[in-house]
Design goal:
By secondary structure, the protein is mostly helical. Helices cover 74% and strands 3% of the residues.
Length: 156
Amino acid sequence: MKIEAGLIRQKQALGLLYSLLEEEFSALLENSPQQVSSIEFSIQELIRQLMDEKEAIKKILTENSFADLNEYKNSLEQGENRIISEEIEDIKVLEEQCSHQAMKNNRIASALAEQSAGMLSFFYDSVTPRQQNVYSAQGRWNDKPSKHTGLLKGRM
């Protein structure tokens, strides 16, 4: 019976994971990095707990001399077998939904990072002197191009 309870907990955790992934997607669209990072911590902790639950089920199966969940399922009576099969199917559907949502979140996050890098590059190019003939760090006119021309150069 512990295996059935573990499967139910996994199904519930995957439902919660999907909700968190949807919330993360909304936060990404709102461009709210603090909210995204706090949700991401929750997602990582939930995934860790899911993996612990799966390991616990594997341990129970091994202790009872079952090679895998299918072998355990086949050893049960028809009614229990059907219940376990339904739970496994529900878990697979939820895992697929979570996977698709995680891919959408990844695409949005990558696009936002690329956009930020492009904006930073644009701003940097906007403030970089176009001509190499600029005042030197000593305040003298420098008409020789320097290999180390930058925005600011000096000493403390």
